[in-house]
Amino acid sequence: MAQATAVAKAPPTRRRKSATPRRLPYLLIAPAGLLMLGFIAYPVISVFYYSLQNYNPTKPWRNGFAGLDNFVTAFTDDPDFWSTLGFSLQWVVVQVVLQLLLGLGLALVVNQTFVGRAMARALVFSPWAVSGVLTSAVWMLLYNSQTGITRYLADMGVGTYGTSWLSDTATVFPAVVTAELWRGVPFFAILILADLQSVSKDLYEAAEVDGASRFRQFLHITLPHLKDAIILSTLLRAVWEFNNVDLLYTLTGGGPAGETTTLPLRIASIAVDSHDFGYASALTSIAFVILLFCSMVYLRLSKFGGEEK
To answer: Phi then psi for 53, rounded to 5 degrees?
Structure first.
């Protein structure tokens, strides 16, 4: 009886809400977050650290803290820095503009209904599935002076035998631009075509009823709808083209006479050939800041994600 009374008088226990459900999402993404921290944050921090050092494994007696000396050298004592940076900007502008225009045109074409559209789409998108190394190898064969395009043109009386477009300063830039266009245009075509699929056909039908021409429909319906896709694709492609190494390195190695040397190629040459990892890290840091600043300004000016007024 007394035991029953004690049990009855005992205060009710409060159930503590478990914090596990609230922490569960963070626990689930923790492994991926740690991997990203290890594979992204650590290399970036290491590059900034070594940019402040004199670090050359072949000359250990000169290693040590350098402060801002590497950055001063880049801006004042290295004429190749400005030439490679200028070519990098030229390369990015030419590639992104041409790839965007050609990719937009191809997307508009394969978005139409016609016989063999599936095959046409496969042919348009296939270069994007080819690796960069294989693309470079294909174009190396096409530009070969003995068995490539110039040989067949010489057989038809156009040009001379033994001509190499990749070793001539007058033709090397159009040659490498063409090779990269073949690989880069499908990227824009894929993204733009995917966005075109979501445009309501009712808008075009209403525009036709109002008497709008095809050009006006493209200008006032298609382009505004593709705005965010174009902004995002051009930004991503600009960053990728700025960091392009594989195709230019394989086709020209930065030549002839440094005509096709981009800043990333210059950085690779300094790090791999000269083993000057401190100065190469400084150039990498400068490139990182340039890309970050230009990306922020571009997104700000383009009003990415904003609604049209």
So the answer is: -120, 155
Nearest alpha carbon to residue 230 among 182, 180, 291, 188: 188
| Cis amide bond preceding 256, omega within 30 | yes
Distance CA(208)–CA(201), nearest Å, equals 11
Our CA angle for 66, 71, 77, nearest 5°, is 105
d(CA 102, CA 177): 13
Helix residue ranges, H only, 78-167: 79-110, 117-125, 132-142, 149-155
How do the pLDDT tens digits run along the chain, 309 residues long? 455 554 455 555 555 555 567 888 888 888 888 888 888 888 888 999 999 999 888 888 888 888 899 999 999 998 889 999 999 999 999 999 999 999 999 998 888 888 888 888 888 888 888 887 888 888 888 888 887 788 887 778 777 777 788 888 888 899 999 999 998 999 999 899 888 888 888 888 888 888 888 888 888 888 888 888 899 889 999 999 999 888 888 888 888 888 889 999 999 989 888 889 999 999 999 999 999 999 999 988 887 766 655
Task: Say if pTM beats, i.e. exceeds, 0.70.
Answer: yes
